[in-house]
# Entry
Amino acid sequence: MTPSGAIAFAAIVIGGAMWSADIRALAMLLALCIAFGVIETGWTVRRAFAWPAAIVAPLALFMAIVWIGIVARSPAEIAAGLPGSRTAALGYVTIVCMRLFLIALLLRLVTLRFSHLTPLQFIRALWAPLLLKKLLVLTLSWIDTILHAVDRSRTALVTAGVVAPRLALKNVANGWILVQTVWLSVITIAIGRARDKWPAENTLARLDEVLSVPPLSLRWRDGAWMAAAIVTLAAAFAAAALRAAIA
Amino acid sequence: MLTTPRLIAIALCAALNFSIGSIVYLIKLPVYLDSIGTILCALLLAGDRKAAFVCSFLSAFLSLIVSALLINPFIPWFVGTDIALALVSAFVTTHGAAIFRARPLQPGSFIVRVLLYGVVTGVTAAVVSAPVVAYLFGGVTGSGSALVVAVFLHAGQQLLSASLSSGLAIEPIDKSLQVLLAALLYRATPGEFLAMLAPGADQAKRNPSYGG
# Structure
């Protein structure tokens, strides 16, 4: 499977999840995602569930407090001016949380599927404009630089006694000095790179050369997953329409 | 428009958005602070507003992609908010660029401008984000604003209007803080870096006789 194929598959599934407001349709998409995880990542799939669960759990808690505990009716009932019930509110919270979990799980699975690639290899293999790929690589590089600058500046300011290594009132007062130190450190590096280092090493031209190779073309596996996503969505919507017709 | 120093500034501001935004997200502060780089990018290019818009939107978009993959998978739905923030930053907030860099600092004008631009940015962000917050999150984004939404919903408001009311209560405060930090970082940026970003700086470098 190629990174572009995985992103296209994820886009189809997420688009479908956003469109469907039916718990069965979401369950079908979730089953497809799990199948994708098992087939594409093998046993690593076990590691994929913790991150989405950790992200969605606090949201689910807040939603349960607000919708089931305080409001005690669903948005549809509010819109219709009905007294409503906690069961309807529970159904609404379940759909929203399931949709959020599905989105987070799918992104995690795509990340895990390509965890053997370096960020540069992943970006290089994408179907995307050269400018966007170049900017993505530069952004990742700057994130590292900023994190290093935070470490260095913090150590220097702790040594100078301006900020404390632990929670302290003077950190609130002098926190701005740390932010300013980090920014000045990063800007100095940026000026040095743009003016001297990168032109001397021809860095940007070499980066262009690396990134301008033709991206990997889609494989049959990409097509198979995209087709599976479309078929699942069609089946889910058909089932929902049938249920509505019978009702 | 996209000269090498500007590409560097875009990536730098995207990295700033990501770094500060993810720290705030992970320690669950009741604010977002994930657009400081977007506002700062517009301020750095205040001399060319069209470039300021393009560059600040690109920095927001890049941080959105990186954040979605590493920290917060729901952030791409706020791409519309990023476009609106880039527009406001490039065409409104940049009007205060001279005051933000004035030496000595004029505290009165500085504070008034920060509050004014912060409120304008916050109201815009609240209006554009409300449909996403209502539909994707059921009005509850997991911060203190959830309780504000609960109060409005309990009072009988519709979900969209409750999300909008909650956004209008929280966003101007968050965005004023972001404009303040961006303005202070802009003030601390060396003039040498701003000169590299100025229109025509690349031609001047390539041809020393350019511009006299």
Observations:
- DSSP finds eleven helices and no strands in chain A.
- Residues 146 and 186 of chain A are 6 Å apart (CA to CA).
- Chain A touches chain B through 54 residues (CB under 8 Å).
- Residues 169-201 of chain A form the longest helix (33 residues).
